Amino acid sequence: ARQLGAAAVTEKLTKSRAIKFVVGGVVARTSISGGSGSVPAIDPMTLPLTFAAYDADNDIIVTDTYVDSRGKTVTIAMTADTAAGTTITFAPASFTTQPSSVTLTYAPGAMSGTQAQNGFATLITGQTSNAAPAAGITLTFNAPHVTLYPVTTANSHPSFITSGPDGALWFTEANANKIGRITTAGIITNEYSSGPSGSQPDRITAGPDGNVWFTAILGNSVNKIDSSGTVTPFVIPTLNSYPEGIVAGPDGNMWVALEGTNRILRLSTDQSSYIEPSLGGAPKPEGITVNNDALWFTDFNSNQLDRMTTAGNADPPLSTGSLAVQPWALTAGSDGALWFAGCNGYIGRMTTNGTVTPYQITGMGGGEASDVTVGPDGAIWFTVQTSSTIQSIGRISTAGVMTLYPVETTPANPLPSGITKGPDGAIWFVEYNANMVGRLQ
Known about the structure:
The chain has about 450 residues and is mainly beta. The protein has one helix and 38 strands. The strands form nine sheets. The chain has a five-stranded mixed β-sheet with strand order 5-7-3-1-9, with no helix packed on it. Strand 37 and strand 38 (about 435-440) form a beta hairpin. The radius of gyration is 28 Å and the shape is elongated.
């Protein structure tokens, strides 16, 4: 019975009764069931599936080997229809005995442009080598949509945004001289004063110390703000430094691009020690990120990306090429390359040895990328600014497939600016002119 695959049944017979059991494992049909049938297209997903093979009497087969009516082994292969492309894999992908579980893994980085724009549906089935009928489930991957939340303070000009250590989003308000906090439910809970009037808070990021850090361009300061809204400033000793990009370094320090002095600032999180290594010349550093345990930053004037070690030693710069003029926003991609936004309508990709691939922003009037980040899907997401009414949020896969999502608000020319991946897996951004915080999922 074990060899034929009979299910073990123990019965205490106190009176006469009929006992039904299945001997053998002749596959007549299969079926699959699972959890939620509808998910956001840009979210990676792991979903357990329940698989069952049945005999001709409609009983589930529990057996050492699935066989056909001639006793020949039947292989069952897990498949997704062609709408899924290469975004779905299974573990196990095929089997000849009852699996303990089947795990579906969805990796949205391989979506086509059409799938990324419109979403798609996929039929999941278990196909048998003896051509037994298979009942499956349909998974629907919904197209991303944008939700906008007005900032409480009028004309505050929200500029940049980051995920905070408290599970909320924090953003700078350049004109209102405030730091805003918004929950993933879209509720703006606070707008804290960022410091002296007119200091113009700009770039913002989470620090390794549990605080949020931001730069103040006209205040010439690097600031940390705790969960209660208390701001502790570090005024940069060198005047007119114009601090821009800021990032937590691999060494536990905060690193800041000083546009006005052509330097990079390394600052301890207790603000007790710092260095300002000079880059020489007039590179005008603006964006900064971490890749492979080093600091990389944009060289706006010289059309280059530069690398600096945590000791403050700068390596020779790498040119971004003739097309991607004046890079100013930068992120480390999931593919190990640097991705940057330029000021003439291109997103650029640079390997760490200096190989550059430019991608022109086309469709919806094109425009210039303002900020870049890595999304939950491993793709690069960026804000696009134009002079038209319709502006957009862009997505480009690491293979170079670009998709634009329109952002329409009143007033015209909303100017989407900073962008980040939220703690909820959504893409969050701010609109400078429209005075909005946006969520895309």
